[in-house]
Amino acid sequence: MNTFLKKAALAAALATASLSAHAAEVDIAVWADVDPALSMMKADGSALDDSVKLTHDASSGLLLDWKERVRIHSNDTAKDITVRLGASPSLTPEVGSGGTPVPLAVSLNGEALSTTAKDFEASSIFDGALPGRSIPMDLIIGQGNDTAIDVAGRYEGIVTLVLLQKP
Prior knowledge:
CATH superfamily: CFA/I fimbrial subunit E, pilin domain
Low-confidence stretches: none
CATH class: Mainly Beta
Radius of gyration: 25 Å
Strand content: 25-35%
Number of strands: 12
Helix content: 10-25%
CATH topology: Immunoglobulin-like
Number of domains: 1
CATH architecture: Sandwich
Order of helices and strands: HEEEEEEEEEHEEE
């Protein structure tokens, strides 16, 4: 019986070796946040990026603004849209870098956003040119103060936009 187990183990090892030499496995994590009433997408209809990089200008010490043309997609263009930030955004330096958090400023269509809700009137943003889609608007994320960043390192944060249809 011991000989049988040795032969089975050898056969399994050879099969595993041949599979790993000729096979590939790909894992793709797929997820979606679904809201049948509202979404925000790039102006061309593609999804917003999950992450963006702000560029640091060494001559001024400040971060340059990031801008994307976006549209709000709605299932009811007669309803006003409320937009707010989920939290006050900032970039936090990696642990041990010695830097200080950098506040961020966010605006949509020229309107500064905060954790307090800002109303966008349906009659102002939905012109009917593209059914269910707002006019193109600039979404801008940038540094929220004029303090030069003088500590090198990686700074990270999250900007959360919350959109609600008004009743």
